[in-house]
Write a structure and sequence with these properties.
about 10% helix, mainly beta, three-stranded parallel beta sheet, three-stranded mixed beta sheet
Length: about 80
């Protein structure tokens, strides 16, 4: 009938997963991904997961740099709020 509910978890990048995308891939709905300060040169795809991605420091020191095709965005900026 009903499935077993999974506990929400916090995944730390890079301590638990080496990249933000790897953390997203490992996450399930309701999880939180905490990203350490630094610049992460990657493009991310949330795959329709209801997860939260946040900086473990302040937004001004944590950046996702998607390269030439994407503008540089800082984690935590209101335009980049993931819920």
């Amino acid at each position: 009938m009903g499935g077993v509910a999974q506990a929400q978890q916090t995944i730390n990048v890079p301590a638990d997963q080496p990249t933000i995308q790897a953390a997203i891939n490992a996450a399930t709905n309701g999880d939180t991904i905490l990203v350490a300060p630094g610049t992460y040169a990657e493009n991310i795809n949330f795959g329709a997961k209801a997860i939260t991605v946040a900086s473990s420091g302040c937004p001004s020191v944590t950046t996702i740099d998607g390269g030439a095709h994407y503008r540089r965005q800082r984690i935590g900026k209101p335009a980049l709020r993931f819920v």
